[in-house]
Amino acid sequence: MSALLTVSDLSMRFGGLVAVDQVALSLQERQIVSIIGPNGAGKTTIFNCLSGFYRPSNGQVQFKGHAIAGMPGFKIARLGMVRTFQHVRLFKEMTVLENLLVAQHHHLNTGFLAGLFKTPNFRRSEREGLALAHYWLEKVRLTEFANRTADNLSYGQQRRLEIVRCMAARPQLLMLDEPAAGLNPNETHELNGLIRDLRDNEGVSILLIEHDMKLVMGISDYIYVVNQGRPLAEGTPEQVRNNTEVIKAYLGES
Ligand SMILES: Nc1ncnc2c1ncn2[C@@H]1O[C@H](COP(=O)(O)OP(=O)(O)OP(=O)(O)O)[C@@H](O)[C@H]1O
């Protein structure tokens, strides 16, 4: 099986600070892979390098055979790699439904002229977009909130909306940056089910940054551990859980 994402020798410097130092990772189709590490280890910086928010100082990133290091974020998203953020980012003044429609604009045939003349393609596209939006709203129990503005949702609902907004862009790789942060245990349990469902039934691969170890250990096929920007360990949840270097890095933190 060939890898969907391969990262090698990835480094990111901010002035004199080496936030990411020669990180390597790979992810196969339909895998859930996690990146863990103490606070400030460089996890979000890795995400920012992979998703086009930062141009890495060094390294190679291959996604579906394309070299994407340094490519702008919108192009990477169009190739099928989309992300959420540590702090929820939604179009808060748009309705829940509009958030899902905007996310699809690259797939919908809704150009200005097509819209002006309401061509058959335009109408079909509009119908498909709406159907997909409702499919995702139903999946995360937000149907009844479709016409509310996003800022009227609870925090947990906003987190769910952010994930399905990414899914509406029809990605092959979904990157989740601390999706359980701020969720209560029930919501975290539901998130666990949603992530599995996305992998098992929607066929997407997941790259996850998360501090909730119960979630990470229960859901990941493979885990990479970083510490102070550098790779510290990798393996199955079982291997990582028993790795003395990993235990030291976490205990050292407290
Ligand atoms: N834009 C930036 N400019 C300068 N330094 C930065 C920038 N972004 C991150 N850093 C630094 O890089 C290091 C890694 O930060 P990063 O946010 O990637 O860690 P993290 O593992 O995601 O942490 P956390 O688990 O707390 O979210 C930190 O020392 C941080 O202060």
TrEMBL record:
- Per UniProt, which keywords does this protein have? Amino-acid transport, ATP-binding, Nucleotide-binding, Transport
Q: Identify the stretch annotated as signal peptide in this record.
A: none
Domain ABC transporter, which positions? Answer: 5-253
Please name one Pfam family that this protein belongs to.
BCA_ABC_TP_C
Cellular component per GO, a single term: plasma membrane
Do you know which SUPFAM superfamilies this protein is assigned to? Answer: P-loop containing nucleoside triphosphate hydrolases (SSF52540)
Q: Which Gene3D superfamilies match?
A: P-loop containing nucleotide triphosphate hydrolases
Give the record's GO biological process terms. Answer: D-alanine transmembrane transport; L-alanine transport; L-isoleucine import across plasma membrane; L-valine import across plasma membrane
Output the InterPro entries linked to this UniProt entry: AAA+_ATPase, ABC_AA/LPS_Transport, ABC_transporter-like_ATP-bd, ABC_transporter-like_CS, BCA_ABC_TP_C, P-loop_NTPase
* The keyword Nucleotide-binding appears for this protein: yes
Q: Which GO terms of the molecular function aspect are on file?
A: ATP binding; ATP hydrolysis activity; L-isoleucine transmembrane transporter activity; L-phenylalanine transmembrane transporter activity; L-valine transmembrane transporter activity
Family of the protein in this entry:
Belongs to the ABC transporter superfamily.
Which NCBIfam families does the record match to this protein? PRK11300.1
Protein name per Swiss-Prot or TrEMBL: High-affinity branched-chain amino acid ABC transporter ATP-binding protein LivG
- What gene is this protein translated from? livG
